[in-house]
Amino acid sequence: MKLLYVLVLMAVCRSAAGSIDEMKRLYSDLFGNYSTKIRPVYNQSQHVDVHSRFSLLAITEVDQVRQILHSYVLMDLTWRDEFLTWKPEEYNGISSIHPPLTDIWRPKLIVPVSVEDRDVFKDETSSITVNSDGTVTWLPGANFASGCKLDMTLFPFDVQTCQFRFLPVSYNSNELKMVSSLISANTQAYTENGEWSLTASRAYTTERTFVDSTFSFLYVDIDLERRPMFFVFNVILPVVVLSFLNIFVFSLPCDCGEKVSYAITCLLSLTVFMSIVSELLPKSSDNIPMVTLYLTCLLGISVLSVVATILIVMKDRVKVNKENQQSPLFVIPRLCFLPFRGSRRRVWGEVQRDCKTDGSAGNWNSNGKVLEGQSSSGGYCVTADSLCMVIFTALWMIVSVGFLIQITQ
Question: Is position 222 within any domain?
Answer without folding.
Answer: yes
